[in-house]
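Render this sequence as a predicted structure.
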Amino acid sequence: MADIIILINENSEFNVTNLASKLKSEIVEYFGSEFKTKDPVVYIERDEVARLKGKTIVYVQSLYPDTGSRINDFNFTLDLLFGKDRKGKRKIEFKNLIIFFPVSTFLRSDARFFDAQPDKLYANAINVFGKYLKPYLEAFPNKIIGIITIDAHLHRYNLKQLSDAFGVSVYDISAIPALSEVLLDNISDVSTPILIAPDEEAEQWAKQMQEILEKKFEQVNVIQLYKHRFGDGDVSISQSEQFTHVTGKTVIIYDDMVGTGGTLIRTIERVKEHDPHDIIILTTHMYPMGMERLLKQEIVSLIITTNTINQMTTSRKVKTVSLGRPVAEMVLKIIKEHSTNS
């Protein structure tokens, strides 16, 4: 696997150490000004450029925490990777490129929220990314061989639609199996766990988790709630007649991305009215603000999340799952598919 190099921004929030170990690959850092100066720049040290020659690059680009800056970083980095000198020769002669978005916030655009504001006109971030990629795909066919996302919002865009928009195949990884593995280690004495999907978006992941838990427990009930969003962090959660079933039980709530924590806080408030034994939170992407607010909820006994965003907390309530293995497996799958089809 020595033909794979991981390329990452020096300030990235995603820790690639485990991924590099699974791929047995080296890591190359590139540097930038964070686009807060009048002369933004992205660069790779000369001796590092030589290491990229003939390699398949796994370019890791999280869009957390400053999405606008990271989008600029993405565009500048593509220009750096595909740039040519004055003689028309490529400056970096890598073999192939796989783009990995640990946190793909461009898929968070809530169409229903936008539709509720007819006085405003919004740009589609997915189309913007597609436009960034288009000239490189046309000038360098078969160089970009795949895009990897984690728990993408596929209820809005399925993989084919995303692939068509980007112009290159998109591969989505689910964090549910890894999260569920840790969950099972912490609920061995629970006979009837109850899953809650706090909104329609979380339903798909709750069902996936239910299938995994049912291999161990005879009955796993799922309570589907509905959310109305008024603004960032300002939401209301529906009541449910099924809340009567949570009394004295361990309740598991999953949400794919926790930003301000507004959705989960409202859900916890609803559940607490019916005296559950405790609440376990599972999420793929956990922002610091959401983590801080959830840790203040005494009834929350455990928070299980992934390493897509660095967790600075030392709380024993928090368990962080590395996604290095599933990402590495996906990278190798993409490389194998490309090799077979070439």
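Summary. The chain has eleven helices and 15 strands. The mean pLDDT is 87.
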